[in-house]
Design a protein that fits this description.
This protein is of the alpha/beta class. It has one domain: Rossmann fold (3-Layer(aba) Sandwich). The protein has helices at about 15-30, 55-65, 85-95, 120-130, 160-170, 180-190, and strands at about 1-10, 30-35, 70-75, 105-110, 130-135, 150.
């Protein structure tokens, strides 16, 4: 069995994430793709700081995405109390829980390549999983070390920042997020802030 671990903030999940998972599944002959949201609810630093949706909301949106796609699933491994945010520790969890002999693929965006050699436990990660980089606009795959696989494909140029901006502006999300995720966003409003000047962030 071949399983991919696909981590990220998924804040919110959108069609670009889904397209990346589909591409990886087809190109790498994957049996399962496991989506792993990072456990971060702190405000982003800087002058344009934005609040993020809670881990509970992001997990719920990912479960919406997985509906009707039995090869796609979501794990809360990094959202549990006291969980480590480091890939090397997440990989160790799956090494213990997946069936023996499972081949693990760690999917990362090409925007992560510059810092990849300095990741905590990178040698252990390399020993326990095949690392494959997905091309992202503005981050060429030729920056990948020779021990990283490269996956280039027709992925939509989308970001969660764009989705949140459209939510804030009241713009439609059709064709940008899966319908079940759009329904969740409209119903649960995970980016709404309480108060007289409630807004999306």
């Amino acid at each position: 069995m071949r399983v991919a671990l696909f981590g990220g903030s998924f804040d919110p999940v959108h069609d670009g994430h889904l397209a990346a998972a589909v591409l990886a599944r087809q190109a790498l002959d994957l049996d399962r793709v496991i989506l792993i949201p990072a456990n971060s609810t702190a405000a982003r630093p800087g002058p344009k700081a934005q609040a993020v949706a809670s881990a509970a909301h992001r997990l719920a949106m990912l479960r919406c995405l997985c509906e009707g796609r039995p090869w796609l699933e979501v794990s809360n491994v990094e959202c549990r109390p006291g969980a480590s945010p480091f890939a090397v520790d997440t990989l160790a969890v799956f090494r213990e829980t997946l069936p023996p002999g499972t081949e693990i693929v760690l999917l990362i965006g090409s925007d992560k390549l510059a810092l990849l050699p300095r990741w905590r436990g990178i040698d252990e990660i390399r020993a326990g999983a095949r690392i494959v980089a997905l091309a992202r606009p503005g981050h060429p795959l030729d920056a990948a070390p020779p021990w990283v696989g490269r996956l280039n494909g027709p992925l939509p140029d989308l970001s969660s920042t764009q989705i949140r901006a459209r939510l804030a502006a009241g713009a439609p999300l059709d064709g940008l997020c899966p319908p079940a995720v759009i329904s969740y966003l409209m119903t649960e409003q995970p980016y709404a802030r309480p108060g007289p000047a409630a807004r999306f962030a």
